[in-house]
UniProtKB/TrEMBL annotation:
This is FAD-binding PCMH-type domain-containing protein. Pfam families: CO_deh_flav_C, FAD_binding_5. Coiled coil: none annotated. Keywords: FAD, Flavoprotein, Oxidoreductase. It comes from Entotheonella factor.
Length: 303
């Protein structure tokens, strides 16, 4: 199929983009990498009056650090998270996350902000941002505001942004010491996950001070934090022995719906298995890092 007719705009600055969004509101769609929007246009699942192509806005293509916070411009291509030296040092958790996204051509075209604003509940980046306690900077006619990743995703393909607003930056606090795991199940490499889990454990200054983020994806209408599983990790510590109990707690209250790809029971079982594997991955890193520290070494890798 072909898209319905639309007008085309290509602003070169954020100010011009916000003017276009203010003028057209719901009738405008932003075009960045096009990995989500173009299929919707071609199938006429969305028929905007205006396409606002933001690819000329080089001001939103960056990765930098500000006072211990990693700042990622919304138009940064996803593949750059795999290769950037700052990400490798401060947020290496993002590198295995990005490798799970589609295929290399998709990661070279797709943008960080585009994936987050599209808010597919089976996508990896939204779940990872919740696990990393990211904050999103949103610009609009009234100025800028910050929204937590947890609050940003409000439902299926729905986020906390007005039609005249744009996601401009992702801000991630870089933990001093952390371990992690991310696992997903898809029928083929590059497909959306039928179920997945992201676990990030901040080790803190001492073993007793760790805190955890446990996030499910592909099993609801948005990334799902699991506070009960996080509390279990905080109370009992991280070890391989806790993986089974934690996985059971993570899906205890999970109400996922079945579809043509997986029944509710199958998806629930997949979620349990993905949590278990992600926790085991984090536990192996945890034990390795504390063993190194006990020997007087300090090369534990931050997340």
């Amino acid at each position: 199929m072909k898209p319905a007719p639309f007008a085309y705009m290509a602003p070169s600055s954020l100010a011009e983009t916000l003017e276009a969004l203010a003028a057209y509101g719901d009738e405008a769609k932003l075009l960045a990498g096009g990995q989500s929007l173009m299929p919707l246009l071609n199938m006429r699942l969305t028929t905007p009056e205006v396409i606002v192509d933001v690819n000329r806005m080089t001001e939103l293509d960056y990765i930098r650090q500000e006072d211990g916070v990693v700042c990622i411009g919304a138009l940064t291509r996803q593949y750059k998270l795999e290769q950037d030296a700052l990400i490798e040092v401060l947020l290496p958790f993002l590198q295995p996350v990005v490798k799970l996204i589609g295929h290399p051509p998709i990661r070279h075209a797709g943008t960080v902000g585009g994936s987050l604003a599209h808010a597919d509940p089976a996508a990896e980046l939204p779940a990872a941002m919740c696990a990393l306690k990211a904050m999103f900077k949103i610009a609009g006619p009234s100025g800028e505001r910050l929204v937590s990743a947890d609050a940003f995703f409000t439902g299926y393909l729905t986020v906390d942004m007005a039609p005249d607003e744009m996601l401009v930056e992702v801000r991630i606090p870089a933990p001093q010491r952390a371990v992690w795991g991310i696992r997903e199940y898809a029928r083929r490499a590059g497909d959306f996950a039928l179920a997945g889990a992201a676990v990030v454990v901040d080790l803190g200054p001492a073993p007793a001070s760790l805190s955890a983020q446990v996030v499910l994806f592909g099993v609801g209408d948005r990334p799902l934090r699991v506070p009960a599983a996080e509390s279990l990790l905080g109370d009992h510590g991280l070890s391989p022995a806790i993986a089974d109990d934690l996985a059971e707690v993570a899906v205890r209250d999970l109400a996922c719906e079945g579809d043509i790809h997986a029944s509710s029971a199958y998806r629930r079982q997949l979620a349990r298995a993905m949590v278990r594997r992600a926790v085991l991955d984090a536990a192996v890193m945890f034990e390795r890092n504390f063993d190194l520290e006990s020997e007087g070494k300090t090369d534990a890798t931050p997340a």
